[in-house]
Structure formats: C-alpha cells, structure tokens
Amino acid sequence: RTRLISRQVDILCRQFLAYRREHEQGELEIPSKIEVRTGMELRVMMLRELWNRFQKTQEALALNLTELENSKVQLEQTVDSLKRAKAHEQRLVELGYAVAEFGHDIGNANGSILSFCTLVLKMFEKDLVSTMDLVRALTYIRRIKHSSVNISGLTGDIVEFAKGNMKLHREKMTLEQFKEQLDVQLGFVGEMKLEYHLTEQDLEVPLYFDCRKVSRVVVNLVKNSWEKLLDEEEEGLIQIRISILDQKDLQIQVYDNGGSISENIV
C-alpha cells in the first residue's frame, strides 16, 4: 500500500512539474525552518503548494465569474434601455409625421376658407352671380370639407401617438367602399387627372383592415405626387392601382407621370 501511495504521489508531482514548466517560471521555495527528511516529505510539500495555488486560482475564477455575471446583467439592462429608447424615438418620428400632415391639412383648409371668403365678398359686389363663381364656391366648400375629414382622422391618430398605444382598428369593408372613402379624402387633387386601376371581381371581396390608417398612407403618397406634378409643365396623371393577392393580401401602388426624384433627395 505504501508503494501504491508513493506511485500516486510521484504521478501528481510529475503533473505539477509539467504544469509549472508550461505556465510558471522560477523555483519553488521551501521555508528554511522546515527540515525535509525524506523524498516523500518533499513531494508532500510540493503538493501542498500546488493545492494552495489551486485554491487561490479557484477564488480568482469565482470572483471573475461574479464580475462577468454582473456585467451580463448590466449589459442586458443597457440593451433593454436602448430598445425602449428606440421605440420612443420611433414614436416621436411617427408623431412628427402625423403633426406635419395635420399642419398640412390645416393649411389647406385655411387656404380654401380664405379663398372662399374672398370669392363670396366679390360675389356680393356684383349684381348677378355667374355660374363659374358658383362652381368655384362649391369647389372651395368641398376642399374645406375634405380637409376637415382629414383633420378629424389625424386628430385621433395624434392622440393615440401621444398616449403611446397606437393600435389597429380593423373593420370589414369591400374595395368599392374603400375607394369611396379615398375619393372623399383625395379632393385636394382638383382638376388633376386621377385614375383607379382595379378589377371588377375584386370590388366585392370582403376585407378586414384599418381603413383610416391605410387611407392615410395612400393620401400621403398621392399628395406627394400631386405637389410634385404641380410644378411640371405636362398634364399631371396619378394612378392608384389596387389588387388582392391570393385572396388575402391587399396591394396598393401609387404611380405618377412626373419626373424622377433628384439624387440629392434620394
């Protein structure tokens, strides 16, 4: 049994020395007060030194592990904060778009009201009111009505954005009904040519979507085209192409015959 223990101690010592040659430099110091009588005692002292170093390494590793866990918690908290900040920033951006659209429609309504008032005042100065004056008056009234509808929808959107609970309000309708609602909101186009491209078979297909928000997107796209075409010399043309894909997806595309977008804007 003594021989077996000596053999195991020899193996441990060789492993320890191999580790030292690979990872450490210098000689082990044996306290001068201790008298080493046998090779076994020397081996035992080396093993004690190895054990002490092993314990210190374990303590250092445990400390490093704790620091890593703390760093992980801090990193997760930072990631969550960044996600919340990003969501907040996106809300502010969308709110900015809604406010800009709100101001745009208020400006349109205000301009139409001023023009209408000016026209009415001129009509009172005349003995007879011409048919053209009546047509213009009706046009201004329709524009005021369209802008009022847009402002009403945008007010609801802005309130939802401000509360932070922007939700979809799905409703059932057909493409024919959706087109009628778009017509009401696209009155600002005026005499510019506006075409709808859709198939008869799709008109009565029931759809479930947030009509107000989808309409807002389409109105924005058409308004961008309309404002661009006002500066064009050729007659403006805007097309709204609506189709149902695979009986489940609604595809809406807006085209115009205006010039391409300049590179600096892109």
Polypeptide structure, described:
Residues 58-92 form a coiled coil. Keywords: Coiled coil. With 266 residues, this protein is mainly alpha-helical. Among the domains are: 2-75, no CATH class; 170-266, Heat Shock Protein 90 (2-Layer Sandwich), CATH 3.30.565.10. Helix content is 65%, strand content 11%. The protein contains five helices and five strands, in the order H-H-H-E-H-E-E-H-E-E. The longest helix is centred in the first third of the chain and has 87 residues, at 39-125. The protein starts with a helix and ends in a 10-residue tail after the last strand.
Task: Name the features.
mainly alpha; three-stranded mixed beta sheet; 11% strand; rod-shaped; 266 residues; 5 helices; Heat Shock Protein 90; two-stranded antiparallel sheet
Short description:
It is built from 5 helices and 5 strands. The protein has helices spanning 2-23, 39-125, 131-163, 175-185, 211-229, and strands at 171-173, 193-197, 207-209, 237-245, 249-256. It is rod-shaped.
- Average pLDDT works out at 75
Overall strand count: 5
Helix and strand composition category:
mainly alpha
Fraction in helix: 55-70%
Can you tell me the CATH superfamily of one domain?
A: Histidine kinase-like ATPase, C-terminal domain
The gross shape turns out to be rod-shaped
Distance between the termini: 86 Å
Give the count of helical stretches. Answer: 5
**CATH architecture label of one domain:** 2-Layer Sandwich
CATH class call of one domain: Alpha Beta
Radius of gyration: 40 Å
Largest sheet: 3 strands, mixed
Strand content: 5-15%
